[in-house]
Amino acid sequence: MHRQELSERSPMRVFERSTHGGLGRGEVGVVAAAPGLGKTPLLVQIALDKLLSGRRVLHISHEHAVDHVRAYYDEIFFDLAAAASLEAPDAVRLEMERSRLIFSHLGNGTASAPGPNPPSLRGGTSSLARIEESVAFARGVAHFAPDLIVIDGFDFEHATVEAVNSLGALAKELGAELWLSSKSRDADQHAPVSAVASPESVPQPLRRFFAHVNVIVWLHAEADLVRLRLLKDHDASELADLNLRLEPRTMRIVDADLPSRSGRPRDASRFRLYSGGASGAESEFGACAERWGLGETHYSFAGHASLARNRGVTVLSERELERGDLSLVYASHRLARALGEIPFIKPILQTIWHQISAAEQVFVVGAIQADGTVRGGTGWGAELARLWHKPLYVFDQDKGGWYCWSGTDWQLAAEPTISSPNFAGVGTRHLTEVGKKAIHDLFQRTFGDV
Fold first, then answer.
1. Which of 252, 262, 350, 420 is the right S-S partner for 324, CB 3.0 to 4.6 Å?
2. Using an 8 Å Cβ cutoff, are 37 and 221 in contact?
3. Is 284 left (phi over 0), alpha (psi -120 to 50) or beta?
4. Distances 171 to 149, 167, 332 between C-alpha atoms, Å
5. DSSP 374-421
6. CB 77 within 8 Å of CB 104
7. What is the pLDDT of residue 23?
8. pLDDT by residue (tens digit) across 119-153?
9. Distances (CA, A) of 347 to 123, 216, 273, 310, 431
10. CA–CA dist 302, 306 (Å, integer)
């Protein structure tokens, strides 16, 4: 996947379509949430969206040290890059770092007042003077003119309307978007149900600032996800339902709320499926590859009774099989179950090694078990993908949805597409109609109609 396509998958595309074009230059937006619900990750998502489009970002934090903020950027960027199979992520990250400045105002209220976090006259503990000094340093000394300014942890509790208006004037002067975050005092019990914008629909302490900012979004917990709601959209009296549910650690869209992808279908002739050609999911992957005009390579072995494909079959020699000869004890340990009694298990695991080794992206159809492994011999392909840090998607037939491996756990995934020219499609022999449709839909989303 290229950077433009990654940008198209950003939560900000939904936000822009659901509002009056999103936040514009010279305007002020606020992210409100109770502590720990993801204000900083969402601000980083907003900033990454700008950086991916070649814009400059100045990030000022009142809650985290510079290294901590940088770690947020790295974690969220590489999560997005892995989920979307971004090409050359390290090079993209380095380029973005050249367009980003981070300042920490942690533990500083004003430049002159004594004591820890003394409140300033206008900005509370978020000293407006410090903010203006940081912006002036960026412009005058670093020759850095930001397109976006992020101020994380602004003290709305003690700030004055004058301070917020001054920030708005600064945004207009610079021609920059300005996003602030605010702790919501009553966010846990405050659930706006009205689609009409009003100060009363906004959690404290933001109500007295309602008329002085352009956009307000609010995060609140919904089961094990986070929902993003719109509380103010410029001068609009009626508010759109963003219908955005986000993964709480990175604020990545995790379900069908994902914005529409680029309308340009990929050239199927440039792609090759690596699989095993066995009956069930692998045979269906092969049939779809043939239907859409992709190349196929099915690694197999002499005497493989379950082989169902005859297009693109490569029968591996004993010497070639030995290249994928990892210990059966090790495989059993990784899958947390004994494998020794399964017929032909050794050559099956060896051919799976070749399939996953050749692929840059891995799709599996099966079922995720309680211990995080994938059921059956197919699970070895998923384990190798995890071991080698390859983008991995599993369609769980029991749950009826796609899941991606984040590096630490399984996360509900929006409908994926095939983004790498060399990809693996493996899975269970016990393919259901739900699983068959998932494979078909994967190809159709990626390559368009047959």
1. 350
2. yes
3. alpha
4. 8, 6, 59
5. BSSTTHHHHHHHHHTT--EEEEETTTTEEEEE-SSSEEE-PPP---SS
6. no
7. 83
8. 666 777 788 899 999 999 999 998 999 999 999 99
9. 68, 58, 20, 19, 22
10. 11
Q: Could you give the CA distance from residue 100 to residue 148 in angstroms, rounded to a whole number?
A: 10
Residue 439: strand, helix, or coil: helix
399-436 pLDDT per residue, tens: 999 999 887 788 888 788 898 889 999 999 999 999 99
Question: In 3D, which of 326, 370, 390 has the Cα closest to residue 352?
Answer: 326
- The half-sphere exposure of 421 on its side-chain side, counting CA atoms within 13 A, is 5
Q: Tokens in use for 181?
A: 């975050």
Return the pLDDT at 389.
82
Structure tokens at 412: 């509900």
> Domains (ranges, CATH) in the chain?
3-246 (3.40.50.300), 268-447 (3.40.50.450)
Task: Please compute Rg for the chain using Cα positions.
Answer: 25
Q: Hey, what amino acid is at 133? A: E
The secondary structure element, H or E, covering residue 326 is none
How does 231-250 read in b/e, with b if 16+ C-beta sit within 10 Å?
bbbeeeeebeebebbbbbbb
Residue pointed to by tokens 């009409």? 196
Of 217, 178, 181, the C-alpha closest to 197 is 217
